[in-house]
Design a protein that fits this description.
By secondary structure, this protein is mainly alpha-helical. The protein folds into 2 domains: 11-47, no CATH class; 57-202, Glutathione S-transferase Yfyf (Class Pi), Chain A, domain 2 (Up-down Bundle), CATH 1.20.1050.10. Helix content is 59%, strand content 4%. The protein has helices at residues 36-47, 57-85, 87-94, 98-115, 122-140, 154-167, 173-180, 182-195, 199-202, and strands at 25-28, 31-34. Strands 1-2 form a two-stranded antiparallel sheet. A hairpin with a 2-residue loop joins strand 1 and strand 2 (31-34). The longest helix is centred in the middle third of the chain and has 29 residues, at 57-85. It is globular.
């Protein structure tokens, strides 16, 4: 997002997880880093990037709070929707083998139960998710990005999570809930057009020969 610069990277590790058992992770000049937050912090330091330099301390704190709400709460509701409640629709759309679907469903059930959100009924999970989406939508309002006319670092996470639900929920209640928040849909389209004008090319290579939606 800094000067809209893109750089291709090569995955030489397949689907292997990091030493912490976490995704995503990177290897940079032989140094391995796990978790999005540490990866971004490391790369920002290496490249001298600070997407938040023009924002106040209060704005930065608010953006981080919404980022963490999505990463630590809303994300898990989305995971339950895709891999537990609607797993076979997701497998069909994403061409995931049924055996892998069983494995992922079991893993997500275990992880969400440990998290806590998986102990609720599906109706309760969707209610929690809708409250999160409304809070984000209300805060975004008519702004172009999370904090105004310029994107901040939290926009990376917000777009990653909301965009995934917007384009990859295959007619589930998550898709319906996101599309009720018109400004979140517009936000996803705006991020896509601003930073990925070559979107279709980017999502149809490697193991994904054609877009799932």
């Amino acid at each position: 997002m800094e000067k809209n610069e893109k750089q291709s990277v090569q995955n030489e590790h397949g689907s292997a997880s990091s030493k912490k058992g976490k995704y995503p992770w990177i290897e940079y000049n032989g140094e391995c880093l796990s978790d999005t937050e540490f990866c971004i912090e490391f790369l920002n330091d290496k490249r001298g990037i600070d997407l938040d330099r023009d924002f106040t301390v209060m704005e930065r704190g608010t953006a981080r709070a919404f980022q963490k709400m999505l990463e630590e709460n809303t994300y898990w509701a989305f995971a339950l929707d895709r891999w537990v409640y609607n797993v076979w629709a997701a497998c069909k759309a994403m061409k995931v083998p049924s055996l892998a679907g069983y494995y992922v469903r079991r893993q997500v059930r275990n992880n969400t139960y440990a998290h806590g959100i998986g102990r609720h009924s599906s109706d309760e999970v969707y209610h929690i998710m809708e409250l999160d989406l409304k809070a984000l939508s209300d805060f975004l309002g008519n702004k172009k990005f999370l904090l105004g006319d310029k994107p901040c670092q939290a926009d990376c996470s917000v777009f990653g999570i909301i965009g995934n639900a917007y384009w990859q929920s295959f007619g589930s209640p998550v898709e319906s809930a996101v599309k009720k928040c018109r400004n979140l849909c517009d936000y996803c389209e705006r991020m896509k057009q601003t930073f990925w004008p070559d979107w279709d090319e980017c999502i149809t290579h490697g193991h994904t020969k054609e877009a799932t939606k």
